[in-house]
């Protein structure tokens, strides 16, 4: 069972989570016309009266942009203000995940985005490790990621997650932990809910923004951290066979943080991963307010 935070934001007010309910006729449920964000919150290990949020402004900006694809004008500062108030009302004492969501809330039928009621809600739940931090096995999916010309891939649009769901279940039902999806050009672009990186000959390589990826905030932070360490970063398409012979492969995301890949189909990857470990150590230290670098990436919400 999930441990939900007791208070949600729903229909412009804070209400008990159990009372935040939608109708079976809700438009977005039928047409996939929602968009969401996903942030981790943790109590500051040095000060339990303070909650740490990683790159809050970037998350709010991305959700505001996703809302634009749905013809919903929701400014990033409004999202930020609601999230901060949401945390102050809930006062969580554990690691949690925040799910802000915008959607067509109308009860009428017919797919469209104009002349239709929309709503914005926020709820949260306790979240520990999303994937095993020791590493995961992956299957390259027979399902491909959508193309940008058929889907606004720069938004976290709920309907897009049908491909992720098909791919993840295909992977798990065939004995793997996670799926890697190809784009329409046959390049590996991301996992079901994570970006992908590989290390070859000391260089960090990740699909570029024109490879049909979600513009991951963790991805962007890792690129900055790699440059900080002097690790060369190359952003380009990645072939499946390059991944199979890579020195290190890892997945990145808000929920997954940096998760090593230990196996792709029947190929084992090296167990020693110096660059993955270095980047993960730094990223986790920053998110936990244990590092003096990149302090501006950590937003601190006071609880009193
Ligand atoms: N790709 C997809 C499809 C995702 O759902 C996510 C999770 N939001 C990511 C990548 C990683 O993005 P972020 O680092 O911003 O969480």
UniProtKB/TrEMBL annotation:
Q: Which Pfam families match?
A: Aminotran_4
Enzyme class, broadest EC rank: transferase
Q: Which UniProt keywords apply?
A: Amino-acid biosynthesis, Aminotransferase, Branched-chain amino acid biosynthesis, Pyridoxal phosphate, Transferase
InterPro entries in the cross-refs: Aminotrans_IV (IPR001544), Aminotrans_IV_CS (IPR018300), Aminotransferase-like (IPR036038), B_amino_transI (IPR005785), BCAT-like_C (IPR043132), BCAT-like_N (IPR043131), BCAT_family (IPR033939), Class-IV_PLP-Dep_Aminotrnsfr (IPR050571)
- Tell me what reaction this enzyme catalyses: L-leucine + 2-oxoglutarate = 4-methyl-2-oxopentanoate + L-glutamate; L-isoleucine + 2-oxoglutarate = (S)-3-methyl-2-oxopentanoate + L-glutamate; L-valine + 2-oxoglutarate = 3-methyl-2-oxobutanoate + L-glutamate
Provide the cofactor list for this protein. pyridoxal 5'-phosphate
Put simply, this protein is called Branched-chain-amino-acid aminotransferase
Please tell me the species this chain comes from.
Answer: Spirulina subsalsa FACHB-351
